[in-house]
Structure prediction request, 628 residues.
Amino acid sequence: MTAMTTATLPAAAGRRVGLGATLRQTATLAWRSLVQVKHNPWELLDLSIQPIMFLLLFTYVFGGAISGSTGDYLQFALPGLLVQNALFYTLSTAIGLNTDITKGVFDRLRSLPIARTAPLAGRILADTFKQVWAFALLVGFGMVLGFRVTTSVAGLLGALALLVVVALAMAWMSVLIGLKASSPEKVQMIAFSTMMPLTFTSSALVPSDTFPGWLEAWSDVNPVTHLADAIRGLLIGGEVAGPAGVSLLWSAGFVLVFAPLAIRVFRTTA
Amino acid sequence: MPYAIEAEGLVKRYGETTALDGVDLAVRQGMLLGVLGPNGAGKTTAVRILATLLRPDAGRAAVGGFDVVTDAHRVRSLIGLTGQYAAVDEMLTGVENLVMIGRLLGLSRREAKRRAGELLDRFSLSEAGGRAAKTYSGGMRRRLDLAASLVGRPQVLFLDEPTTGLDPRSRTELWDVVRGLMADGVTVLLTTQYLEEADQLADSIVVFDRGTVIASGTSDELKSASGGQVLEVRPAEEDRLDLAAQVIAEVIGAAPEVSGGRVTAPVHDPAVVPAIVRRLDDLGIVASELSLRKSSLDEVFLALTGHRAESEPADHDSADHDSADHDSADRDKTGRDKTGRGKGDRGKGDRDKQEAYA
Prediction:
């Protein structure tokens, strides 16, 4: 047994993990999160059906009432739905992390001679892939229903890039929630009770000028409004620089506030 | 390196609660140390410190000669950890779980697969290897979990209540696996609430209660150190059981235990035995069974802690009861949920529960 040890395993670990090894471990852990999708069709459904369901519901149920025609509404709402979906999805990082903690998988990973950051980085990497998938799916399905990107491919890629940047900034908050929450169910509740009002009181799904004054005032400062406006601008034309700038500022603010907190909690729990 | 595991004066506090209050441990290479203790005694906290998951507030510990705090990474390359909960990714198949660990440890894809196959074989999981772990039975999950901790061929293995919640058959199977590992020269630290488990597997035993080591030695040493021997009398006629108990109570000056048609009493002075026999004879009580034996570990435990250890996995509740251990580690999220109290309070709550057991 001991002889085999030296034959099959790399030499005893040094004091630290090198960058190459860290990246490899991160990739392995990202693979782990993605291969789950293969075994859990429900997760895949969750990931694919929910945005599509939202898309169909909003377009055909509310579309006519809001914009006069479903086609017009689809054109207006799809960018907002992309934002809503991306924001919701950032919390899947929290749910996955929290599940790992409650199931003991997190401890197992922490007891291995791997980079401390790999479990977090791997998960975030995987969730970023899933974000891209959901984006492609929603845009693709929207196009089947009649949505048209009226700007350019660059606009489309820009929108994706902006959403990914915002999602990565929010990942810090997600990590913090994942580390602190008492159960995955609770994370889901937090997600629902914060993201739902945030997106609904923004210009993501309806033009905010029909809101009562106080709500419109709120909507104007709501970061989701700016993000939705930016994505809309990138996909169907309109102002981009202003709202995108505000969104990036918000993202920076998020990182500044939540990154230190998340790191501190991660250090003490981990 | 005379000791594979060494700890000196480990202290871990959570607010008001002291989970560990100066614990010393030493395990020689290739030996199995059984850490025995009730829920909330600090067993899991000690394991988590030794496995580098938790920093001690005071004291030091080394595994394989490396300090668990300053040289944590090296310690991690030597150890394997299997906790109370089977820490496997339920969404992944058995093979994938093991391949993932192998890849994380730097094996090539092919090597990782081969190693996974080897381990699944060894733990009789080959057939289930392609199925998601969530479809496994409790015993299978535990075996997969143990296999996962062996991918890196650890020199030191921490088994934290590896059989809690398992049915007797799975438990015996797991014991066989542990014996196999011992034969490979692996050093094992095993925590358990089950005396029988410690008795079966351990080279030496330490008994934890409320964060301290209250006794240590081999199973035999512990048995003879605390309270000597046990007298058991089974009257031939069951209706004379109470009378026999009365006689024994009078002679030894303490109330004996009566259960299962038998009177059991700790005996410190062997001279009481002839006296008891004489009295029984005078009263015409015929004993179908009369024996003097070394105390069982269970009795040792009772003598040491004032309460009995659980002899059977009570129910799934036991995971909850252990919350002090886990809370300490900030892990038992459900416990926190239920009580909604702070950490210190929870520790106390758990202690109350323990006393209720006694």
